[in-house]
Amino acid sequence: MSPGTVAVYYGGGKLRVLDSRMKMIEVVLRCAICAFGVLAAALIGFDSQVRKFFSVEKKARFTDMKALVFLVIANGMVASYSLIQGVRCVVSMVNGAVLLDKAMAWAIFSCDQALAYLTLAAAAAAIQAAQIGQFGQPELQWMKMCNLYEKFCTQVGEGVVSAFLVCLCMVTVSSISAFNLFRLYGKAKGKS
Amino acid sequence: MSPGTVAVYYGGGKLRVLDSRMKMIEVVLRCAICAFGVLAAALIGFDSQVRKFFSVEKKARFTDMKALVFLVIANGMVASYSLIQGVRCVVSMVNGAVLLDKAMAWAIFSCDQALAYLTLAAAAAAIQAAQIGQFGQPELQWMKMCNLYEKFCTQVGEGVVSAFLVCLCMVTVSSISAFNLFRLYGKAKGKS
C-alpha cells in the first residue's frame, strides 16, 4: 500500500497524506527498534568467553558489568514495547483511523519519551563501561580487559552499536508521537 | 507579572492563558537548568583530593575519569544555552509575543531535544563511572576508589545529583518546546 493510494482512500487532503506517510515511517521505525533491540540484547546476553590463565579458568560474561545487564534489560523492554506499538500502528493503518484521542496520544507520547530516555541512558552507561574495558583508566588502576577477552569485547561492541541504532530510532519515534499528541492542541482550535 | 495579568493583556482567550502559563514555567525551568548546570559543573570541575600513600602523594581530580569531563562540558554547555533561552523567553513574555514562526520553533525544539539527550547521556555515563568508583567491579579487578577519596566522591555525588536535576528540567523543557512546535501543525488547520 503506497502512501499515494492511502491519500486517495482518505480523500486526498494534505493532512491525510502527511498522516499516512507518518504512520508508514512509524511502523518502519518500530519494526527497526524491535529488530535492533532483540539483536542488541541477544548479542550481549549470549556473549561469553573463557580464558585460561595458567591453571585458572576465567569466564567473561555480560553479568560482570552492571551496565551491560541494564542494557540487555532496557533493549528487551523496548523491543517488546515496539512490537506491541508496531501492531497497533499497522491495525490503525489498515482501519484508516487517525489518532484523535488525547488520553491515548498522551499515553503513547509518555511511554515513547520514557523509553527513548531509558535506552539512551542504558547505551551511554554501557559505552562508558565498554570504554573503560577497552582503554582502562590507568589513573585509577582499572586495567583494560579487552586485550584479554578480545572476542567478548568485539561482540559487546556490536551489541552497543545495535543499541545505539535503537536509540536513534526511538528518538525519532518519540518526536513523531510528540507531533501526534501536540497537534491535537492546534492553535487554530484555541481562538476564543 | 502574574499569569492572570498576562491573560487579560492578551485578550483573555484560553489559549493565551495557557501560553503565558507555559512561558512562566519555561522561564523557571530554564533558570533552574542554568543554576543546576553551573552547580554541577562547578562541584565536579573544582573537586580534588590529595592523599598520601606512604611517601607517594596522589591527587584525585575529575579529569581522571572521562565521564566526569564529559559531564562538566555537557553541563557547562546546557547552562549557557539555557541562559540565552531564558533571556529569549523573558523578552517574549515582556513583548507579549507568541511563537508562531515554524523555523524558530523547529530550531528551539531541535536544540532542546539534543541537549536533553546529551545531558542525560552524560549523567548516565557519569553515574556508571561513579558506581564503579563506589562499589568497584571485582569480577574485572577494578577496585573501588571511594574508600580512599571519600571527600572527592561525596562531592562528585552531589554534582551528579545536580546534573540529574538538570536532566529532569531539560526533559520537561523539551516537551514544552515540542508542544510549542507541533501545535503549529494543528489538525484544525489541515482540513481541506
From TrEMBL, chains A, B:
This is CASP-like protein. The chain crosses the membrane at residues 27-46, 67-84, 160-182. NCBIfam families: A_tha_TIGR01569 (TIGR01569). InterPro entries: CASP/CASPL (IPR006459), CASP_dom (IPR006702). Residues 20-169 form the Casparian strip membrane protein domain. Belongs to the Casparian strip membrane proteins (CASP) family. The keyword Membrane applies. It comes from Canna indica. The lineage of its organism: Eukaryota, Viridiplantae, Streptophyta, Embryophyta, Tracheophyta. Homodimer and heterodimers. It is a multi-pass membrane protein. One of its GO terms (cellular component) is plasma membrane. It comes from the Eukaryota. Keywords: Cell membrane, Membrane, Transmembrane, Transmembrane helix. It is found in: Cell membrane.
